[in-house]
Amino acid sequence: MATVHEPPPKVRTEDEPKLEPLGEPIAQDKESRRRDRFHA
């Protein structure tokens, strides 16, 4: 079972780096929008 779980994580690792860079800017955008709403 451990062997079958190892392949999936490897494939996700390639997708993770792509989602990480995109997630960082999005997370900052969400925080900026929340601050704008809070300030308003």
TrEMBL record:
Residues 7-40 have a biased composition (Basic and acidic residues). Residues 1-40 are annotated as: Disordered. This is Uncharacterized protein. It comes from marine sediment metagenome. The lineage of its organism: unclassified sequences, metagenomes, ecological metagenomes.
